[in-house]
Amino acid sequence: MKLVNLLKHTGIEISPILKNIEVDGLTYDSRNINANFVFVAISGFSSDGHDYVKKALDLGAAAVIVEKPMDEINSSLILLNPTGNNRDLLAEMSAVFYNTPWNEMKTVGITGTNGKTSTAHILRWILEKQNIQTGIMGTVGHIAGGRTIEASVTTPESLQVAEYMREMANSGDKAAVMEVSSHALSLSRVKKVRFDVTLFTNISQDHLDFHKDMEEYLETKKKIFSLVKKNGSRIVGTYASGWPDVADSITFGEREEDSFRITDIKVRTTGSSFTLWKQEKKYPVVIKAPGRFNVYNAVGAIACATELGVLISKAVEAVASFPGVPGRMESVDCGQDFLVSVDYAHTPDALERVIKQGSALKENRLIVVFGCGGDRDNRKRPIMGKIAVENADVVFVTSDNPRTENADLIIQDILAGISDSFSPVVEPDRAIAIKNAILMANAGDVVIIAGKGHEDYQILGRDKIHFDDREHCRMVLETRGYKCTH
Question: What is the number of structural domains in the chain?
């Protein structure tokens, strides 16, 4: 593609010398520069792409686009973006370079504090059961044309979004399901993407290290509704407080007026059942995934599927065989007579939900192990401590991903929300906390290991070490004489 065509609608002035340059690729990371690549310098939070302009030129960049003048570097290959916003520019260029692949597939964007991952995976399961090959992007990984791609963030940068969706379209995917984070909406990662269906799961406190307050957080989430294709659908969950009132939206929840209404919810350690009503017709639904919240996730996925043209009866039938999502109320079953479950819950609302679900499933005690991540919103830590001790029988406070913070100080923040009348077990070593929690479990107990879910690592300082809660659970269960299959 010629540079002049790539920048056609950007307002960037191109010298006659550069107009006919052929562009073979785009990047915002100077380490990925190849011949005939365009380097887009972005002012990031931890590093500034402008510091790598000279390196990009030395590596053979066909052109470099900057947000601010680089007078100290004399090169005709440097182009200035008059808007000063290269995140928006990267989204625009990526859409042009990869030829808007979202227009060649049925696309679904799912946002919300909790439930994005489970809803997305249930929806993909439903669609694949209808022989609709479906790609996915989200927290536990991306799949494009059947190829699995490791995920470092929930929603990748706009360049990767366009690249992966082009791979999906070219590989025969007929649909694409994407988890859309508030960061992605704020930082233009999905600015040019258009969805056939958008879904809002719920909102609760999270990412206030990034958003100034909950109002800004909600307004950012609502941006997804502006990305709907003509005649597309907007779906909103009403089962949790704070849901937005969106014009002409389809709703799901337990209200009489909801488009998809849920009644008769019954939860068990082996799964859940409920009745789903749609236009006065009722459908009995059974799902293997335990937890009341998975009922809402399943209905959100069913609503999306029907808006894409799947018969509701077929969607309900498919949901019954859904095996669950890694790290989302994931049972570690080695034949023991108590439930051990690993969950990604790392926000106050998510922790409260999973603890209350565990309480509903227990026949004896509820034992909870959790911590809070470092370099993230510290205001939620005491709230999570209070939630844990007031809703569980035994609480182990431990480390999560401390990152560059002192793990002991993070724990002190958690303990600040706990009354002196409660006595949690404080064990900074996560492996030991998990071990002691499972060793004390008896018949009928429920043990929940919260915070990391599907993650198979722990971040200590700037180092990432291997650590999988599920592996540690199995090791402890095996020391108790149970047979675990891996």
Answer: 3
